[in-house]
Amino acid sequence: MARADKARVLDVGCGVNKLPGSIGIDSNPRTRADVLCDLDRVPYPFRDDSFDRVQAVHVIEHVASVIATVEELHRLTVAGGTIYIVTPHYTDFSSFCDPTHRWHLNSFSFRYFGPDDAGYGYYSTARLREKKVRVRLLAFWRYLGFEALVNAFPRTT
Q1: Per-residue confidence at 23, pLDDT binned at 50, 70, 90?
Q2: Is residue 139 a part of any domain in this protein?
Q3: Any domain includes 148
């Protein structure tokens, strides 16, 4: 994945907490972005296969099209690279309390990009290999042990 030199990392929607050493992009000029661009308009201003790792932490729930954004992240990531996405689970109150959230997603929402495309291969040709999914539940459910239980078992169809 990483070349002999340092791995290139893109922090999509970096906000004010840009990942150190990464190239940050955001649409908001009041952020620490290195590049300002509309995250709803693809392509982003980078060549294909430009990054070893692309991360979008609390971004995917804000974009106009989840499919177009994941396809763009896929385009920017080298073969064998990593795309790291974090989003609130739809059962978490934070998914609904932010008026800028357009999508309410869960641990199965990205199966459309998996090898079996969840039976809907016509939505996108981008294919990702899921390495790990971790669900973080509200404190009450964590306290009762449900979070550990959910994350202990492999996900099945």
Answers
A1: very high
A2: no
A3: no
Peptide bond into 43 cis (omega under 30): yes
In a domain, 88, yes or no: yes
| Dihedral of alpha carbons 18, 26, 88, 139, sign | positive
Query: Residue 98 is part of a domain; what is its CATH number?
Result: 3.40.50.150
User: What's the structural domain count of the chain?
Assistant: 1
Higher-pLDDT residue of 82 and 155 is: 82
Res 85: pLDDT:
95
Q: Classify residue 144: in a domain, yes or no.
A: no
* pLDDT-based confidence at residue 152 (cuts at 50, 70, 90): confident
72: pLDDT strictly greater than 50: yes
The candidate with the shortest Cα–Cα distance to 7, out of 86, 72, 82, is 82
User: In this structure, are residues 59 and 12 in contact, taking their beta carbons and an 8 Å threshold?
Assistant: yes
pLDDT in tens, 49-64: 999 999 999 999 999 9
CB atoms within 10 A of CB 50: 17
Range of the domain at 70: 9-131
What distance in Å separates the CA atoms of residue 10 and residue 122, rounded to the nearest whole number?
28
